[in-house]
Amino acid sequence: MNNVERIQAVIKGEPVDYVPAGFWFHYSSDYTVEEMIDAHMKLYNETGMDIIKIMQDYSYPISGKITCAQDWYNIKIKGVDSEEFEKMAAVIKGIRARAGEDVLLIQTMFGPFKAASIAFGEDVLMKYSKEAPEAVIAGIKIIADGLEQWAKGYLEIGADGIYYSAQYGELGRFTKKEWEELVKPFDLQVLNVSKQIDGKYNILHICGEPEYDFETHIDRFGDYPADLVNWSVKDNGYSLERGRDFFHAGILGGMDNKGNVLKGPKEKIEEEVKLILDRFGTTGIMIGADCTIQGENIRLDYIKAAVDAAHNYHK
Question: Where is each Uroporphyrinogen decarboxylase (URO-D) domain found (predicted)?
Answer without folding.
Answer: 63-313
